[in-house]
UniProtKB/TrEMBL annotation:
Gene3D superfamilies: Glycogen Phosphorylase B. Residues 203-354 form the Glycosyl transferase family domain. Transmembrane segments: none annotated. This is Glycosyltransferase family 4 protein. The lineage of its organism: Bacteria, Bacillati, Bacillota, Erysipelotrichia, Erysipelotrichales. InterPro entries: Glyco_trans_1. The keyword Transferase applies. It holds the Pfam family Glycos_transf_1. It comes from the Bacteria.
Length: 381
């Protein structure tokens, strides 16, 4: 079998969020057709990964100098000079390693290898001689808009053969500039139990959030939504699953707003059947690519109330049919209260969410990926 190499700038643990989960699913999808190996340009300190158990992990650098931009920002605000200097040194090493990595990558692959690069950040470390597929896991504007870090990464990256976006709308925006296509995120429904008791869920005023505690998720807005919802639905609960640099900040906001009885920080969870316990998913992100969490919730008949994080939101949520796209705190709260007070409406929306899950099935994803890879292989020959 031919080799597929999946390249990260740094491979993170299984708690890192949707990116790792997306590639764990892709590996399972393609492992019978290809030998799949994972490359971490920066030392991940991993030789095996819980979610990539069948794959060899190759660390290119011997050292871990991955910079955390959140830590740089926070240490600037809090005047933590030593921590700031440490992260700035990592940032310097990170960019200085780009030419070294490009030399190594030029010699690493054979002419028949298929290379999938996980982000423009990882593509910065690829040689211009490498022919590779680039994946974009956030919206188009992050890398080709006003975001300074995203624009820098897109300018420094080596040119891909083809770029795969998560949504049709992002693919169409990119088609003016380079060879692009799209492939929706997907999940393997075999990982879920077959029990979907929508009637049971709607009797509970329970909301779930599942994802990283990162700045782009705008979780302070979610806490403000919870504060306002308490005035209308005093017995609601919001369980927040995930890890990240903002956990302590969110915990502080929960306490300051007297929400400890309603809002709970539940840590990392990889059990997809956890959605059985909830009637709604909240998402307040400023930007996404194609939210895995919305798809996972759909598989269990749980509708989402989400902010408009990009044009792609309307490809995963059919507004007012299987979920809702609302932007303001007031609109999110009023929509949530409406659903919690209207049993019949919530049941209908939940049934539609379950019905529309098939757009993101493993079978559809397999067909699309095989077509893409065969096309790529044909260009290599």
């Amino acid at each position: 079998m031919k080799n597929i190499y999946i390249v990260f700038d740094k491979l993170h643990s299984n708690e890192a969020g949707g990116l790792v989960s997306a590639y764990a699913s892709l590996i399972q999808l393609l492992k019978d057709d290809y030998t799949i190996k994972v490359i971490s340009i920066i030392n991940s300190n991993l030789t095996r990964h819980d979610m990539f158990s069948d794959c060899e992990i190759i660390n290119v650098s011997k050292h871990d100098f991955f910079p955390r931009m959140e830590i740089i920002s926070d240490s600037l605000k809090s005047f933590k000079l030593l921590l700031l200097l440490k992260e700035l040194f990592k940032l310097l090493c990170y960019f200085c390693y780009i030419p070294i990595s490009r030399i190594k990558m030029k010699k690493f692959f054979s002419s028949e290898d298929i290379i999938i690069v996980s982000s423009p950040a990882a593509a910065m470390f690829m040689s211009s001689k490498n022919r590779f597929i680039l994946e974009i896991h956030t919206k188009f504007e992050y890398f080709w808009g006003t975001n300074k870090l995203g624009r820098l990464q897109s300018k420094l990256m080596s040119k891909p053969y083809i770029t795969v976006f998560r949504t049709k709308s992002d693919m169409e925006k990119a088609s003016k500039y380079f060879n692009s296509t799209y492939s929706y995120n997907f999940i393997n429904k075999e990982l879920f139990n077959d029990t979907v008791s929508i009637g049971e869920k709607i009797r509970k005023h329970k909301i779930i959030y599942m994802g990283r505690f990162g700045k782009e998720k705008n979780l302070p807005k979610m806490i403000e939504c919870a504060k306002q919802l308490k005035k209308q639905i005093p017995d609601f609960t919001l369980d927040m699953y995930g890890t990240g640099v903002l956990v302590d900040d969110i915990a502080k906001l929960i306490e300051e707003n007297d929400l400890s009885e309603n809002v709970h920080l539940c840590g990392f969870c990889n059990d997809k059947n956890i959605f059985d316990n909830y009637s709604l998913l909240w998402l307040t992100s400023d930007f996404e690519g194609m939210s895995m969490t919305i798809i996972e919730a759909k598989a269990k008949g749980v509708p989402t109330i989400s902010t408009n994080w990009g044009d792609g939101v309307f490809e995963v949520i059919h507004d007012k049919e299987d979920g809702f796209v609302e932007n303001t705190v007031e609109d999110i709260v009023n929509r949530t209260a409406e659903l919690m007070n209207d049993k019949e409406l919530l049941i209908n929306i939940s049934k539609n969410a379950l019905k529309n899950f098939d757009e993101f099935s493993k079978e559809n994803a397999y067909k699309r990926w095989i077509e893409l890879l065969k096309r790529f292989e044909g260009e290599l020959e």
